[in-house]
Each structure stands twice: as C-alpha cells, then as structure tokens.
Backbone:
C-alpha cells in the first residue's frame, strides 16, 4: 500500500543472505526483469548500496547493514517507460530526455528526488503512487543560475519550469532527444509513455 500523509513508512527487516544487492538504480530496476504488468508477481526484494533512489530514501550504502538488525525494508513504487512505442522498460529512479545542457528542452519523469548531484524533484516520494514530471525550458541567459540552484532543490518555482504529478504521461518531445533510463543511455527518441506501478518493489537499506 502506498504511503499516506502522516503514516510511518517501512519496517525493520533485513535482506536475506544471498539476496540481490544493487549498486545503482539500473541494477535495482533489473530485479523487476522484463515482465509486463499482466505477468507481474510478488514484489522482489533488493538491497540498495547506491544510486539516486538509495540517496532519496537515505540509504547509507553499507553492505553489512543490509543483513543486520539495523536494516529497514520499504515498499517502493517502480515505473515503466516506452520509447517511441517500443517495449516497456522498468525504472526505479527516473527517465530523462534532454539535449546538451544549455540548449533546448529537458524533460524527466521522477520516482526519486535526486538526479545525480541535482535535487531535481523535491516533492518526489518513491512510494506515493505518483511520478513527478519536470519540464524545463530555461532561456540561455538564465541556465547557469538555475543549474547552481539544482543541488539545493531551489530551482523552482520558475516560470519556465513546469512540474506536475500523476500516475502516467504521454509526451511528445517535439524533436528527437537523448534518452536515459536510470542513468543509462538507451539512444534517442521523441515520444515517451510512462506509467507508475505502486508497491512493485521492496527495498532494503
């Protein structure tokens, strides 16, 4: 069940010995395999050692902790993206479409708050049943100032940054752009379809 305002999230619980450990967001998403929603079974469990999802939930990246009494287990959402109508690909942190910084549009669907060194989606929570969609079209003269604010999450509100939340989105980027899923480049595309799946994963930190 997704988290509700004012409720606690997570319970004490360690990763079983031999359980899957992920050092990156892409490694964590791999725990979901290549299944579509119709085939989706019990939520797999994965211990987090790194990545933007790990940082968002405050994971210390301590392998020994994952199997010890201090470990915590949390239900976590995941999402799927289709690029130009292709097969669905799981992600746990974000999917990003962008040109080189300083040129053109930047668009992201965020399940985690962090995107590398940037606190790009300050309201994002990985178990609220929603994705945070960030659409950036900053004029050239303002981009350096906005970039300086991103690590602090102080880039919004801004009239050329649009943020909304939802369970799904279909976006035409208006041009072919570079696409990265959980930090891994997957080539280029123009049309993205994304959908969140609540409680798709169990994460341990």
Residues:
């Amino acid at each position: 069940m997704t988290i509700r305002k004012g409720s606690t999230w997570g319970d004490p619980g360690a990763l079983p010995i031999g359980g899957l450990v992920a050092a990156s967001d892409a490694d964590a998403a791999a725990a979901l395999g290549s299944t579509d929603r119709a085939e989706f079974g019990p939520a797999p469990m994965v211990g987090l050692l790194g990545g933007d999802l790990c940082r968002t939930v405050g994971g210390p990246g301590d392998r020994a902790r994952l199997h010890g009494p201090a470990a915590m287990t949390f239900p976590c959402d995941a999402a799927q993206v289709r690029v130009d109508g292709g097969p669905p690909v799981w992600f746990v942190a974000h999917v990003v479409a962008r040109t080189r910084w300083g040129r053109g549009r930047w668009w992201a669907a965020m399940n985690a708050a962090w995107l590398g060194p940037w606190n790009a989606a300050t309201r994002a929570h990985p178990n609220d049943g929603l994705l945070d969609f960030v659409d950036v079209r900053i004029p050239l003269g303002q981009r350096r100032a906005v970039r300086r604010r991103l690590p602090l999450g102080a880039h919004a509100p801004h009239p050329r940054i649009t943020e909304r939340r939802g369970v799904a989105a279909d976006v035409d980027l208006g041009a072919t752009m570079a696409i990265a899923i959980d930090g891994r480049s997957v080539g280029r595309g123009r049309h993205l379809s994304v959908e969140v799946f609540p409680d798709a994963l169990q994460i341990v930190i």
